[in-house]
Amino acid sequence: GSIPAQALDALSVIAVHRMGIPFGTCLSLTNGMNAGAAVLNAVEANKRVLYLRDARGAIVGRKLIAVSKDWRLLGYRTYSALERGVVSEVDAAFAALCRDLAAEAKLPLGSTGAPENLHGGFWYDDGLVGFGGSPDSVSAAYCGTLGRPPCRAQGIEEEARAVAARASKNVDVGLEALPRWRFEGEHRELARWLLSELGEVATLRRAHDLPMLGDALLEQAAERGPQHLLAMFGKLGARP
Q1: β partners of residue 74
Q2: pLDDT at 5
Q3: In terms of Cα–Cα distance, which of 44, 86, 82 is closest to 65?
Q4: Taking CA atoms, which of 15, 78, 87, 165 is between 20 and 30 Å from 155?
């Protein structure tokens, strides 16, 4: 007989909770440092996890998707257990599915922004990336400054947005472009610039939702000396 709808819903929630296990990522319930964040992907209506399975039913790919605050469908880094040569095919399969989902939901595809944190708990994303197709104008322009042809290499879009946001001198644009993690390179420079524009108090208020701002605060405090660094650890630990 068919499986009851409630049982299917329960199995779906369990599958999302296990999103980090097949790939050994930080969201793994067994030993992942950010395992708690997988719970929000299971319970929040604006977040979903897509899986790709092989002919035997084994999970070979995963993609986190979400609906942004301004009602666009966002996609995050694709994880694949397949050989490197077919990863692009996995990405293409997920992109095609996301385009279908976006059309059915009447949502445009997005490459910037963030979803609402509906339950207020800690949330970790896999790194925002654009969907398949030609690189957007921001990425293409950035590749040009690097002396490279337009491309969609992993992370290049986030890096391009970070550069463009800092050049715009618009704090709101910068906050939208700041990824949650990878405090290095252009992302680090953007976080440090946002700290200089917002000031310590305002940055501290936002550091819960944007952990890289916390990294910027700690780095600045370390430059001022050990006492300042310890004090900043205390402030970050006491934030709501």
Answers
A1: 66
A2: 41
A3: 44
A4: 15
Measured CA distances, 240 to 72, 82, 179 (Å): 28, 41, 20
Q: From the centroid of its chain, how far is CA 59?
A: 21
CB 95 within 8 A of CB 75: yes
For the chain, count helices (H), then strands (E). Answer: 10, 4
Gap between the terminal Cα atoms of the chain:
49
Question: Could you tell me the CA-to-CA distances from 94 to 31, 76, 87, 156 in Å, in that order?
Answer: 27, 11, 11, 19
Going by C-beta distance under 8 Å and a sequence separation of 6 or more, which residues neighbour residue 98?
A: 50, 63, 65, 73, 75, 109, 131
The residue whose two tokens read 């934030």 is: 239
Report pTM: 0.55
Residue 155 region by backbone torsions, left for phi larger than 0, else alpha for psi between -120 and 50, else beta: left
Do you know the residue count of the chain? 240
DSSP 172-219: HHHHHH--SS--SHHHHHHHHHHHHHH-HHHHHHHTTT-HHHHHHHHH
Q: Give pLDDT, residue 25.
A: 67
The rounded distance, in Å, linking the Cα atoms of 41 and 45 is 8
How many whole angstroms separate alpha carbon 181 and alpha carbon 172? 18
Residue type, 38: A
R_g of the chain, CA atoms, integer Å: 19
Span 187-215, mean pLDDT?
87
